[in-house]
Each structure stands twice: as C-alpha cells, then as structure tokens.
Amino acid sequence: MIFDLDLVTEPGSERVFLNCISRLPRSYGQIRAIFDTGSPKTIISARDVFALKIPVRSLEKAPPTKGFGRGGLPSKELNNFKFILRSKDSQIKEFEMPVYVIDIESLNKLNDEYRKSAYSIPTIIGLDFLRLFNLKLYINLKETYAFIEE
Asked: What total of structural domains would you count in the chain?
C-alpha cells in the first residue's frame, strides 16, 4: 500500500507533511503532521491536542518534549493513539501507536509568550512511526513527490 505525502517547497526550505485522521474516542478529526526524520518520537502538538479535545488529565507524565529552542514542553504519554491514512488507491488503513502529547493543562499555566510559541509548533511524525509499522519513506525533491510504502 502506498500513502502519498505532501511535499511543500518554499523559498529556502522543503517540508514533508502527512495528513491523517484521529480515531480516538471523542477525539475524531484531521491532523496535518510534519515528517521529522530527526525525531525519534511522534508528538501530538498542543494545537491538535486542544482541537481534538484529547483528555490529557488522565495520561501518564512523560519527559518534557525538547528541541524547539524554548526548553522542554510539558508532555504526557498516550499509549494507544489511533489514526487512519488513505492510500493512493483510496483504501483506508488504521494505525495504533504510543505517542507523546503536549500537556496543554500544564502548558496553559505558563507565560503567554511561551504558550503562544508552543501552540505554533505542528504535530510531528517521528521515525518511530516508520519503524513500528515497517514502512519505507521515499522523498524525491527533484521531481517533487514523497510517499510512504508498506
């Protein structure tokens, strides 16, 4: 099965995005995540945690999410994040994996500038997604396409 990715080219940068749909109970909705081959872990952004109403209160505390230039963001671990992808030939495939989610309850207690900056960071798909499901990532910048394949 092949899943197309969005390769977005802007002056001075290229970004690869994965569009998926959350299938958590009471947290159904679309996510546009950036592929980060430097991230070992998938991280659901504060913006998506808020939009999807993911209940962070009951989740276990995780180490702070680092690497965004402002120190660590408070995080929790969601052991069974469920989401679906639509393949190139319109088949639906469901995935379930552990992820970090930004703890928006803790984040909202921090100062306005820090919080505003944290809410601007997108959801990140890390290498754990590729490894866990034995997927291959293909990116061709010259011909401007990207996809993942089972």
From this structure: 1
